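== Sequence and structure of one protein ==
=== Format: two labelled lines per protein ===
==== Data for this protein ====
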Amino acid sequence: MHESQMQQLWDSAHLSGSNAAYVEELYELFLHDANAVPEEWRTYFQKLPAVTGNSPDVAHSAIRDHFVLLGKNQRRAQPVSAGTVSSEHEKKQVEVLRLIQAYRLQGHQAAQLDPLGLWQRQPPADLLLNHYGLTDADLDTTFRTGELFIGKEEATLREIRDALQETYCRTVGAEFMHIVDSEERRWFLQRLESVRGRPQYSPEVRTHLLERLTAAEGLEKYLGTKYPGTKRFGLEGGESLIPLIDEIIQRSGSYGVKELVIGMAHRGRLNVLVNTLGKNPRDLFDEFEGKKLVELGSGDVKYHQGFSSNVMTQGGEVHLALAFNPSHLEIVSPVVEGSVRARQDRRGDRSGDKVVPVAIHGDAAFAGQGVVMETFQMSQTRAYKTGGTLHLVINNQVGFTTNRQEDARSTEYATDVAKMIQAPIFHVNGDDPEAVLFVTQLAVDYRMQFKRDIVIDLVCYRRRGHNEADEPSGTQPLMYQQIAKQRTTRDLYADALTQAGVVTAEQVQAQFEAYRGALDEGRHVVASLVKEPNRDLFVDWKPYLGHAWTARHDTGFDLKTLQDLANKLLQVPEGVVVQRQVGKILEDRQKMTAGGLPLNWGFAETMAYATLLHEGHPIRITGQDVGRGTFSHRHAVLHNQKDAVPYVPLQHLAENQPSFEIYDSFLSEEAVLGFEYGYATTTPNALVVWEAQFGDFANGAQVVIDQFITSGEIKWGRLCGLTMLLPHGYEGQGPEHSSARLERYLQLCAEQNIQVCVPTTPAQIYHLLRRQVIRPLRKPLVVLTPKSLLRHKLAISTLEDLAHGSFQTVINELDQIDAQQVKRLVLCSGKVYYDLLEKRRSENRQDIAIVRLEQLYPFPEDDLADVLAGYPNLERVVWCQEEPMNQGAWYCSQHHMRRAVSGYKQGLGLEYAGRDASAAPACGYASMHAEQQEKLLHDAFSV
């Protein structure tokens, strides 16, 4: 029956009682024996929401009233103690129910999962009859089946055991009994046991599986012949990945999914690009031949490249995006989640029905990389949930050369980390394509129904070693002796279909030749590829392309509107009781709004957000303490002291304002920053901010900074406007709470890749944040934000400073000093400026000018030259910093400063005043800190 006929029958069931009864009978049959239902109906029923006593009825009127009959299937087997039953048969009945439970829990340990047959695993004792006092003599005795979905309420022990063996101990190893939610467990029981773990597929489905395997194998053989010995991290041994992903796309599309975002490392990436996303083989061949494909940038190796395309599914057009990924393997996972969340937000897809993340992992990386755990931990949190991720593990059973389990991990499976969030895990033998198809369908249906992560562990092997230039037998001799004898997945499946009469040997060969012919001609090999895609599915970056670097941009804002917005932020709803100190902050902000108090940092930063929202820009801020602010300055989230319900004033500026999202994150840097990078690369019109609790906590996310934030544009052409706020300042708080490691960011600066700024006034942070969004240029922004300056008596601004002007890359001397008298000019950045200023004023030194560099990269050489020109009689120029000499800006920026100074006057040098070089960022003793601070200030005035 075609889908249209099914839909017709379904729709007409309102009117025809006979149709309704037929559908209900089919559904009853499906619940007990899904293989007894035609494949089209089975697929249809599998997509229905789970029906349990605790959930609403299925939203299909034809069966709404009839499915109350399912109540009889909701009964639970009551726990029975052997001591409470009277007869021997009843005691054995209890043991049979325990046997059924054991198979559900541990059947995977006896499953045939390894295509190579090298796994040596003894069946668990819990699966043996004698463990329960049962013997072969009991095999023909009839017992109640409890909740076993085998189509009958009573069966012989032989039938029960055989059904359990077929369901749980063939080529699928199911782990789902660790899930706490009984509805989810029951859903899996029904889906698995009703088909004995192996649905019956039509000849058309099986032929399509073979075609996909032919494509997967065909590309690898073609590349191996055409480019022998060239690294490609091929999929040979894991070819079932291609039909697996194909089914994810097609089945997701049938649910109405509009976008799939895929993250994966190297293994099989080229195959996915060509056979799934539809990359033209000719383009891939050009990359193998070393041709330069981009005019600007460094480019990257072919197995790091991303791609996007549109394919057609039964449910309509689906946009596919493969994320760019460096060699840091699992780091792409949170990036994908961030991109997905941004796409969902753009579509208003709060439940994750329209955009789905797919993460493809390697087994060794999945078990070994901490970011995997961090990404799992974020999966159900408010700030980062995406409605569930489909995780695919390409399990080669070896990581580079480490294959002994006791060396590779401390867990039974590489996937055990997923159990921390109760994710179901399905291990499947990669040489059984139909089993792979089955668990893929399970995975998609589970994700779409329950909106949670699920893992497919594709147990396979790698035929060529870690890469094609590798010789694996030196470290895995036994494994590669077996691999040398192992027939390919395609060959095995082709033989099975030929013997079953599904295809002929001639058809098998014709498939192979047709695919190779397409490669020879450089034609697309994805039949479902949409040649003229729907552009509405794309993120529009055109307004942000092709802009040259500009330091200045008008970020002024109407003063009256500014005050109106400030007043709206101070309107706390009736019934919201704020904490006493917070109330004082709001009172002060009221005075600042009226012009009665100078503006502090928290007020100016908040007004930057308010004005951007007013101008139509969404804002997202995350970090471990961003609602309040680590140093209690922001208070963007007010917590009602009566009921702890939060109130966010910035979300209530106007009825149809853009979104303002602010979340205190869980205690992660790497995954969270990766997520925000992915979000920012997908939302060009928004201000996306990540704030570290202390600046150097970003150390935990260094891979994201190195591989994505600072180099993503030059490697992959990926623009990103992410803003990082990193608290920085030497207040005697020790090595870990002083330095944001400025030097690390400056060392990564080149080709105008990022912006590194150290603002020192409220107006500066206001204009800097506004510039980041209003200016069409999209570059990551690293801001070293203050701690003590948040309330410093001199770090103030006025309403006029906010209403007019723009961000100043260099701030000249502000005191009334005669420029003719100035002999010494002190250059600095950040908090030390105020220490220098107070010292200069206390000593009444009229011969010293203090100039602030507020932007260290791109270095404002012209602006600094203009400032220097205003002092005609300089004899000395000193750079003063709080950081040790080998840290901070000195080593990375002194050449820029020297160039500006030498341009001012030949022979005039640049001197250093600051802490001596140190292995630690700061000292841990208050007295030592004060002594060092006094010395560097003295040196600035006298070296």
Remarks:
- Residues 1-6, 8-16, 53-85 have pLDDT under 50 and may be disordered.
